[in-house]
Design goal:
The protein has 494 residues and is mainly beta. Helices cover 12% and strands 40% of the residues. It contains five helices and 37 strands. The longest helix has 18 residues, at 48-65. The N and C termini lie far apart (50 Å). The model is unreliable at 71-76 and 98-133 (pLDDT under 50).
C-alpha cells in the first residue's frame, strides 16, 4: 500500500470537520494546502480516516491471532490504537497468544428474555429498542432523503410550508418538498458555484449555514467559499453576497426580513441589505474568527468568537454598544431569549453563561457539563411568546453526551438528559415548547418531554447527527447526518 502526504492530510482535514472542529479544520486545511491537491472530496466517504484506522487495527489483530501454520484462528483481546503501533506490545501479544488454546464462540442462550434497552434488528440498517417504556421509531415511519454526496451539516424547515432545506460538504444546498400533497419528496439542488476563468464552476466548499426569511419566500446560505447567497423557493439564485474573506460560519435573517447578518473566519460580522445584496455595514471588533451571531432587534445583534469575547453591536454605530468577557475558551454559540432581554452563551470552557445589557458581568455562570458545550437553544415560551403560560427554559448540548434543561430565572438545572452516548451537536424545541429534539454522533435523534425530562420517542439513523429541527406545526422533525442522509420523522404516524 502506498499513499501520499496529500492523502493523509486530506483524511485528517475531513476527520476534523466531521468531529465538529471546523476552525481547526480550516486552519489545518490552509497550512497543508488542501485546496491545491487534486483529491475530489465529494468522492471520499464519511469517517474515512476512522474506517482505514479500524481496518488497520483489525489487520494487526488478525496477524496476532493466526497461528504459525496460518490456519488456526484464536480469539484476541482487542488492541487499542496506540498499542497497535508499538512493536514491543504487538510482539508480546503474539507470544502470549501462541501459548493459549483455541477458543470457539458459542451462541448465548437468552431464553427470549432480552430486557429493557436491548437492541434488536429491524428493517434496513436501523435498530429498534425499548427506552423508558417507549419504542424507538421504526425505519418504516421515517422518510430518508438521499441525494447529497457528502456530510450534511445543517437543515432548516421553511416557516410557512413543509419545505426542508439542507446544506452539505458537497457544495450544494437542497430544498426538499415534504408537503402531504407531494407523493414522493422532490429535491431542488442549489449548486454553489464561483467564477473561474470567465465560467461558473462548483466551489467545492462546504455549505455550513442556512436560514429562511420570516415569510418563507427566500433562503440564505453561507459557505466556506466566503460567499453568502440568497435563493428563491424555486431554487433560483437571487443574490450573491461577497465581502467576507474566507469561510462564513453563521448567517441569520432579522425578523423583518430586510437584513441578513453573517459571521466569518476573517474576524468580521456583516449586515447585508437583503434587497440589494450589498454590504450595509461591516464590524471588525473581534481579534479572531467570529463563530456565531444572533439578532436582538431588527437592527442590533450579538456576536461571539474564538477570542473568548462577546460584542453587542448596532447598525450605524461604529463601536460595540456592549461587550461581555468572562469565558476562558472560544465561545461557540450565542442566543437571545424570545424577548431579547437575556443573552445565553456557551463555550469550550464547559460553561454556560447568561448576560444582561443591564450588567457588565454575567447574571448566571452555569457549570455542570464536563466537556465542551456546542450549542444552546431557548424555548419558545414565557412572556411575549405564543406560549405565555409556560416557563422559559434554556437547553444546552455538550460533547459530554448530555443535554441539560435550565431554569434561567433561578439559575438551576431542572433536567439532565442522558440517553446519548456520543457528543450532542444539536437541540431544538417544538413550537409549543412541550418537546425537545436532540441529535448526536451516536446516530440517534431523541425526543424528550420538556416538563418531565422523559424520553418520548427515539430514532436511530445511519450517520452521526449534525442538526435537528421542527416544522412550524410541530408534527415533523427533520435531521441531517454525517453520511450524507437527511431524514424526516412524521410524528402524526406514531
Amino acid at each position: 500500500m502506498s499513499f501520499s502526504s496529500d492523502e493523509v492530510n486530506f483524511l485528517v482535514y475531513r476527520y476534523l470537520q466531521e468531529s465538529g472542529f471546523q476552525h481547526s479544520a480550516y486552519t489545518f486545511g490552509i497550512e497543508s494546502h488542501i485546496s491545491q491537491s487534486n483529491i475530489n472530496g465529494a468522492l471520499v466517504p464519511p469517517a474515512a480516516l476512522l474506517s482505514i484506522l479500524q481496518k488497520g487495527l483489525q489487520y494487526t489483530e488478525a496477524e496476532i491471532s493466526i497461528g504459525e501454520d496460518g490456519t488456526e484462528q484464536r480469539i484476541v483481546e482487542s488492541l487499542s490504537l496506540i498499542d497497535a503501533v508499538m512493536p514491543d506490545i504487538v510482539a508480546s501479544r503474539q507470544q502470549q497468544n501462541q501459548q493459549k488454546p483455541i477458543i470457539k464462540n458459542e451462541p448465548h442462550d437468552t431464553n427470549g428474555d432480552e430486557g429493557k434497552g436491548t437492541v434488536t434488528p429491524c428493517a434496513g440498517n436501523e435498530t429498534s429498542m425499548e427506552v423508558d417504556g417507549s419504542i424507538e421509531i421504526p425505519a418504516s415511519k421515517a422518510t430518508v432523503l438521499r441525494g447529497h454526496e457528502s456530510e450534511v451539516f445543517i437543515c432548516a424547515w421553511n416557516p410557512t410550508t413543509d419545505l426542508l432545506a439542507s446544506g452539505s460538504g458537497d457544495s450544494t444546498a437542497r430544498i426538499w418538498d415534504m408537503s402531504d400533497n407531494c407523493p414522493s419528496p422532490n429535491q431542488l439542488v442549489l449548486r454553489h458555484c464561483i467564477q473561474k476563468g470567465g465560467t461558473e464552476v462548483p466551489s467545492n466548499k462546504d455549505v455550513t449555514s442556512l436560514d429562511w426569511n420570516c415569510d418563507g419566500t427566500l433562503l440564505a446560505t453561507g459557505s466556506y467559499d466566503g460567499y453568502a447567497r440568497i435563493w428563491t423557493t424555486a431554487g433560483l439564485l437571487a443574490s450573491t453576497l461577497g465581502q467576507h474573506k474566507g469561510p462564513i460560519f453563521a448567517l441569520k435573517w432579522n425578523k423583518r426580513g430586510n437584513y441578513i447578518l453573517s459571521a466569518g473566519v476573517d474576524k468580521t460580522t456583516i449586515i447585508w441589505d437583503a434587497g440589494s445584496g450589498q454590504c450595509t455595514q461591516q464590524f471588525s471588533f473581534h481579534s479572531a474568527p467570529a463563530l456565531d451571531v444572533d439578532w436582538q432587534t431588527n437592527t442590533s445583534f450579538a456576536s461571539c468568537s474564538t477570542d473568548q469575547c462577546i460584542h453587542v453591536c448596532k447598525l450605524h454605530v461604529d463601536k460595540p454598544i456592549k461587550s461581555f468577557q468572562g469565558h476562558t475558551n472560544e465561545v461557540n454559540a450565542i442566543k437571545w431569549d424570545p424577548q431579547g432581554n437575556l443573552l445565553a452563551s456557551c463555550s469550550d470552557d464547559m460553561t454556560l453563561k447568561i448576560w444582561s445589557m443591564k450588567h457588565d458581568t454575567c447574571v448566571h455562570d452555569l457549570q455542570a457539563h464536563s466537556k465542551e458545550i456546542y450549542t444552546i437553544k431557548w424555548s419558545p415560551t414565557g412572556p411575549g411568546t405564543l406560549n405565555p403560560n409556560m416557563n422559559l427554559i434554556l437547553a444546552s448540548a455538550s460533547f459530554d453526551s448530555t443535554v441539560r434543561l435550565w431554569d434561567v430565572e433561578r439559575g438551576v438545572c431542572i433536567h439532565t438528559l442522558t440517553k446519548h452516548t456520543e457528543p450532542v451537536y444539536s437541540v431544538a424545541f417544538s413550537p409549543d415548547g412541550k418537546f425537545l429534539a436532540s441529535g448526536s454522533f451516536d446516530k440517534c435523534v431523541h425526543i424528550w418531554s420538556t416538563q418531565s425530562g422523559q424520553l418520548v420517542h427515539s430514532y436511530k439513523g445511519t450517520g452521526g447527527i449534525f442538526e435537528v429541527c421542527w416544522n412550524s406545526r410541530g408534527d415533523k422533525v427533520g435531521a441531517s447526518a454525517s453520511d450524507g442522509s437527511v431524514f424526516v420523522l412524521d410524528l402524526r404516524k406514531l
